[in-house]
Specification:
Helices cover 41% and strands 14% of the residues. The radius of gyration is 45 Å and the shape is extended. The chain has six domains: 74 residues, Helix Hairpins; 115 residues, Glutaredoxin, CATH 3.40.30.10; 100 residues, Glutaredoxin (3-Layer(aba) Sandwich), CATH 3.40.30.10; 134 residues, 3-Layer(aba) Sandwich (Glutaredoxin), CATH 3.40.30.10; 43 residues; 174 residues, Glutaredoxin (3-Layer(aba) Sandwich). The strands form four sheets. A six-stranded mixed beta sheet has the order 15-17-16-18-19-20, sandwiched between helices. A five-stranded mixed beta sheet has the order 5-7-6-8-9. It has a five-stranded mixed beta sheet with strand order 11-10-12-13-14. With 768 residues, it is an alpha/beta fold. It contains 29 helices and 20 strands. Pfam families: DnaJ, Thioredoxin. Keywords: Autophagy, Membrane, Signal, Transmembrane, Transmembrane helix.
C-alpha cells in the first residue's frame, strides 16, 4: 500500500475515534429535567431549581446524588442557552457530545485502533489525550478580568488557548498535564480558555494560532511562541520572563550593603542552594513577596560558613534591622513551597516597619469591629531626616522588648512630611498637640474610621525616656481593656504609596511593556510585513539623506566658485569669510504677486517702493541704501512697483482701507515715492510718504480741527486722493528728497509704532 493510502486510513481512523464519543448516550436533557420539548425558559428554570434542591449532595443520601446533580446542572446549562438548545433540537447533539467519553466502549478489553496507530509511529492514548482535561480548567473572560488578572500580581498564571476539533490541542494534552503536576506545587496556576467561546479574549491577548500558551505576570501577557512539546522549554520561558533583578546575586563584598538596605521598608532574605542556578520555586516565591521582602541568591562558601549553612542543603534566611543573625530560617534538603510561604508570611515585616502605603496599614492594623479582640497600633510620628534616626532606633529597641504580643499591639513609625494628610487628620481640633515625635495609638473600626489617642509625652531621647515609656505602657494597658474607650475619632484618607513610581518612571515602564507586548504579539505572519515596512521607511530616509548630501555638496561648490570669482576681482578682500549676500529687488507684477503678497508665511513682510519710469534713477539708489542693513533678515522681501502697471490695484487697496466706500481720483504723480509694508498673512499694510500724517505730527502739532482733517491719513490728502488733482501748496517736495525719512520710518516699523491699515482681502493685480 502506498503512503497516500496509509495516510487516508490514518486520518479516517482518527475521525472515527473522535466520532465514537457521539455514539455514547449523554441522556436526553428534557428527560433529565422532566420537562417537555416545548417548555418555556421559566418552566425549565423552575424544574431545575426543584431538582437541584432534591439532588444536592449535601442534602441527599443517595450514593448517586453527585452524579445526578452534575447531570441536572449540565442539562440546564444546555437548555438555558438558546443556541445550544436549538442545535440539540435540530441535530440531537451539541459540542458537549464530542468531548465526553462513552461509559461503555464497544471494546472494553482493547483499543481497536491501537495497532493501526502503532504501525505509523503515533500511539494515540485516549485517556491522556482526553480534551475534557481542558474543559475542567476553562475560564471565561469575566473570570479572567475579575479573578485571574488581580491574582497575577502575586501568582504567575499559565493560560492555554484551545478549541474543539483541534488535533494539535489534543496532542499537547499530556504535556499540559505534566505542566500542571510540576508547576502547581511551585505556586504557578494553570488555566485554559476555549477560543471558540471566548473569541474576544483571544484577540485581546494577540492569540494568532492554536494551541497557544501565554504567561500572565502582574497583568502583562507573554506569548510562548514555540511548540508545546517540551516542559523544560516552558520552564525556561517562565524563568526568563520573571521581573528583571528581582533576585540579586550576593557576594562576600556586598553582603553587608545588601542586609543593611532595609531602609526601603523591606525584609532581607538570603537563598542558599548547592547548585549555582536557582530553582524556579524560589523565583516564584520571591515574585509573590517582592513588595515586602528583597531576596538575594548566595553562591559563596564564605557566606555559608558565616551563617553556618550546610553545603548539601537548601536554606532561606530572613533578616530584619538586626543583620547579625536571622530572625527566621528554614533549612531542608528540598524546601516545599507551602513551608516557604508560611515562614516568609509570618516574618515579612521589620521589627519597626514604616506606614508607607495603605497595604501595609491594612496588614499591620486591620479593621476590627469586635472590641474584646481589638488590635492596637502604636505609631511614632517622625520626619524623613537623619536627625530622627536615634529616636526611631530607640523606639525600635523598645518595640522588640515590648511585653505585648504582636497579636494585640503592633509598633510602627510614619513620616509626617510624606503622610501629612493622614497625620493632620489625627490632630484633634482645639487641643495643643504637636505631632512631631509624638506617639499616637490607633484602632481602626473600618477603612476610613479610626479611633485614636495621643500619649502626652514626646519620645525624646535626651530627656526622661523612662517616664515616657511608663506612660506609654499604662496607656496601652488601659486601652486594651474592652471597657475603655478612646478620646478621639476621625475619618482619614488612604495613605500615599511612597514606593509607587513617579510619572516619568511610569511612562518608561509602560513604554517598555508596550514594546514587549508588541514583540510578543508578532507572529511569523506579522514579522515579514513589519520588516518590509521598516525596510521601506529606512530606504526612503536613506535616499532623502543621500539627495540632501548631494545638494549640500553642490551648494558648497557654488560658494567656492563665487569666492574664487570675488578673490579674482579684488585680491585684497577675503574670499569666503567676508562674503555678504546680495540684496535682491523684485518687481511687483501679476506674475510675482502671489509669491510676494498672498502666499507670504506668517511673520514675513514685503517692502514695496512705488515709482514710475521717470523717477526710477533717482529713487532706487536711496531705497537700496536704506534697506541694505536688513538684507540678512529672512522675514523680509524687497520689491518695487511701477505705478503705471499697478495703479488699479493700488487704488482698490486704498479704497479697502477706508472706513466708508467712495470713489477715489488718484493722481499717479503724487504716489511716486510711497513705500508700502505688506503683511500677506495678517492682511494689513503700513504706508510711508514724505507728506504722511505721522511725519507731520512729529514735526509740529496741528493747530486746529480743520487742519487735522486736512492732514488725516484716511482722507488721502498726502497721496493725491482729492477730487482735484492739484497738489497741496503747503510744502513743495522734490523727487530726490522723497525718501529722506525712510530709514527712520523703517526703525518705527520694526518697533511696531507705525499705523496699520487692515483690509478684508488682497485685491487682484492687473494683468498687462
Amino acid at each position: 500500500m502506498k503512503w497516500g493510502a496509509h495516510h487516508w486510513v490514518y486520518q479516517g481512523c482518527i475521525l472515527i475515534a473522535l466520532l465514537w464519543g457521539v455514539l455514547g448516550e449523554l441522556g436526553n436533557p428534557y428527560e433529565i429535567l422532566g420537562v417537555h420539548r416545548r417548555s418555556s425558559s421559566q418552566e425549565i428554570r423552575k424544574a431545575y431549581l426543584h431538582l437541584v434542591k432534591e439532588w444536592h449532595p449535601d442534602k441527599s443520601n443517595d450514593p448517586n446524588a453527585e452524579q445526578r446533580f452534575v447531570e441536572i446542572k449540565l442539562a440546564y446549562e444546555l437548555l438555558s442557552d438558546p443556541d445550544r438548545r436549538k442545535k440539540y433540537d435540530d441535530k440531537g447533539i451539541t459540542e458537549d457530545d464530542f468531548y465526553k467519553k462513552p461509559e461503555h466502549p464497544p471494546f472494553p478489553n482493547s483499543n481497536p485502533f491501537e495497532d493501526i496507530f502503532a504501525h505509523h509511529g503515533a500511539h494515540f492514548n485516549f485517556q491522556e489525550n482526553d480534551i475534557t482535561f481542558f474543559h475542567k480548567l476553562s475560564i471565561t473572560t469575566r473570570q479572567y478580568d475579575k479573578i485571574i488578572v488581580p491574582k497575577s500580581e502575586k501568582t504567575p498564571h499559565l493560560i492555554f488557548f484551545y478549541t474543539d476539533w483541534c488535533f494539535p490541542c489534543i496532542q499537547t494534552a499530556p504535556y499540559c498535564r505534566k505542566l500542571v503536576e510540576y508547576l502547581e506545587p511551585l505556586g504557578i496556576n494553570f488555566a485554559t480558555v476555549h477560543s471558540g467561546r471566548e473569541p474576544n479574549l483571544g484577540r485581546r491577548l494577540s492569540i494568532h494560532t492554536l494551541p497557544c500558551l501565554v504567561l500572565l505576570l502582574d497583568g502583562n501577557v507573554y506569548v510562548f511562541k514555540e511548540t508545546i512539546t517540551s516542559v523544560q522549554k516552558i520552564i525556561e520561558f517562565i524563568r526568563n520572563k520573571m521581573p528583571y533583578k528581582m533576585i540579586t546575586k550576593v557576594k562576600p563584598n556586598d553582603i553587608d550593603d545588601f542586609l543593611n538596605g532595609w531602609e526601603d521598608n523591606r525584609v532581607r532574605g538570603l537563598i542558599f542552594e548547592p547548585k549555582s542556578t536557582m530553582r524556579l520555586r524560589y523565583l516564584v516565591t520571591a515574585y509573590h513577596f517582592r513588595h515586602r521582602v528583597a531576596f538575594g541568591f548566595v553562591d559563596s562558601d564564605e557566606i555559608r560558613r558565616k551563617f553556618q549553612v550546610p553545603h548539601d542543603m537548601d536554606a532561606v534566611l530572613l533578616f530584619n534591622e538586626n543583620t547579625s543573625y536571622p530572625m527566621a530560617s528554614v533549612t531542608m534538603k528540598d524546601i516545599p513551597t507551602s513551608t516557604l510561604h508560611h515562614v516568609i508570611s509570618s516574618n515579612q515585616y521589620l521589627a519597626l516597619p514604616r506606614l508607607s502605603s495603605q497595604g501595609i496599614l491594612e496588614a499591620l492594623c486591620p479593621c476590627e469591629w469586635n472590641k474584646p479582640r481589638k488590635k492596637l497600633c502604636v505609631v511614632l510620628v517622625t520626619s524623613a531626616s537623619r536627625s530622627h534616626d536615634s529616636h526611631r532606633q530607640s523606639f525600635r529597641i523598645y518595640a522588640q522588648r515590648s511585653p505585648y504580643s504582636v497579636e494585640k499591639v503592633r509598633f510602627a513609625y510614619i513620616y509626617h512630611d510624606k503622610q501629612t494628610d493622614f497625620v493632620n487628620a489625627l490632630t484633634p481640633e482645639g487641643h495643643a498637640v504637636e505631632p512631631m515625635l509624638g506617639i499616637v495609638i490607633i484602632w481602626r473600626k473600618d477603612t476610613s474610621h479610626i479611633k485614636y489617642e495621643w500619649v502626652s509625652s514626646k519620645w525624646e531621647v535626651e530627656k526622661n525616656l523612662n517616664d515616657t515609656t511608663s506612660q506609654l505602657e499604662r496607656t496601652i494597658s488601659r486601652l486594651l481593656k474592652s471597657t475603655e474607650t478612646f478620646s478621639y475619632e476621625a475619618f482619614v484618607k488612604d495613605l500615599f504609596d511612597e514606593h509607587a513610581k513617579g510619572i516619568l518612571g511610569q511612562v518608561i515602564s509602560r513604554s517598555i511593556q508596550f514594546m514587549e507586548q508588541i514583540y510578543e504579539g508578532l507572529g511569523k505572519e506579522q514579522i515579514l510585513p513589519a520588516l518590509s515596512i521598516l525596510g521601506t521607511v529606512l530606504f526612503i530616509l536613506g535616499i532623502g539623506y543621500f539627495m540632501a548630501y548631494l545638494v549640500r555638496i553642490e551648494e558648497e561648490s557654488i560658494q567656492k566658485q563665487k569666492a574664487r570669482a570675488k578673490s579674482g576681482n579684488n585680491n585684497n578682500e577675503p574670499s569666503n569669510s567676508n562674503y555678504q549676500p546680495e540684496l535682491k529687488l523684485h518687481e511687483l507684477r501679476s506674475e510675482t504677486y502671489n509669491a510676494l503678497v498672498r502666499l507670504l508665511k506668517p511673520g514675513c513682510r514685503t517692502i514695496v517702493l512705488v515709482l514710475d519710469m521717470q523717477s526710477r534713477q533717482q529713487l532706487m539708489p536711496p531705497f537700496h541704501k536704506a534697506v541694505w542693513p536688513y538684507r540678512k533678515n529672512k522675514t523680509l522681501m524687497f520689491s518695487y512697483m511701477y505705478i503705471e502697471r499697478g495703479l488699479k490695484w493700488y487704488k482698490e487697496l486704498l479704497q479697502l482701507s477706508l472706513p466708508e466706500e467712495r470713489e477715489l481720483n488718484i493722481n499717479p504723480r503724487n504716489c511716486v515715492g510711497t513705500v508700502l509694508s505688506l503683511n500677506g498673512h495678517r492682511k494689513y499694510f503700513c504706508v510711508f510718504h514724505a507728506k504722511h500724517m505721522e511725519k507731520k505730527k512729529r514735526r509740529h502739532e496741528t493747530p486746529n480741527k480743520a487742519s487735522t482733517e486736512r492732514l488725516d491719513c484716511e482722507s488721502g490728502a498726502f497721496i493725491g486722493f482729492q477730487t482735484d488733482s492739484s497738489e497741496s501748496e503747503e510744502e513743495v517736495l522734490l523727487q530726490g528728497t522723497l525718501l529722506d525719512g525712510f530709514s527712520n520710518w523703517l526703525d518705527r516699523l520694526f518697533e511696531g509704532s507705525t499705523q496699520r491699515f487692515h483690509i478684508n482681502y488682497w485685491p487682484e493685480f492687473p494683468i498687462k
